[in-house]
Amino acid sequence: MNKFLLALTFIFSISAAPSAKVFIISPKDGAEVSSPFEVVFGLQGMGIAPAGINFPNTGHHHLLIDLDKLPDLKSGIPADAQHLHFGKGQTQATIELDPGEHTLQLLLGDWMHVPHETPVVSGKINILVVD
Questions:
Q1: What global pTM score does this model have?
Q2: Alpha-carbon Rg of the chain, whole angstroms?
Q3: How far is it, in rounded angstroms, from Cα 15 to Cα 111?
Q4: Which of 5, 19, 118, 121 is disulfide-compatible with 45, CB 3.0–4.6 A?
Q5: What are the structural domains of the chain?
Q6: d(Cα 42, Cα 34) in Å, to the nearest integer?
Q7: Exposed e or buried b for every residue in 5-40, given b needs 16+ CB within 10 A?
Q8: Closest Cα partner for 110 from 65, 69, 52, 64?
Q9: Per residue in 30-74, pLDDT tens?
Q10: What was the pLDDT predicted at 18?
């Protein structure tokens, strides 16, 4: 990351509410699902705002799929098949995964897709996608 973007990230890093909690409402941990399937996101203690909107005590969802570890929490969350961005403020999504075992986890990002100073991250859930 270049020095300018690093400085902006530091200057504009956003605090999360101390009681903030993000979680996956559905599917439940251990669920068997058929692809495509719906993932419903939950959030307590903060609000949802689209990416690009710098509003206090808000963020937007990122769904992490099959990650062994979290992305760098001091820079922008990557955008790829394992890091799905919901920058329009979506609170649910239909996703498609290949059959097999998968993990899902939510990470709240600020208006610039950067995790909050105190990251708001869910626990991982395990699902089995069946044919």
A1: 0.87
A2: 15
A3: 12
A4: 19
A5: 3-130 (2.60.40.10)
A6: 21
A7: eeeebeeeebebbeebebebeebeeeeebeeebebe
A8: 52
A9: 999 999 999 999 999 999 999 999 988 999 999 999 999 999 999
A10: 74
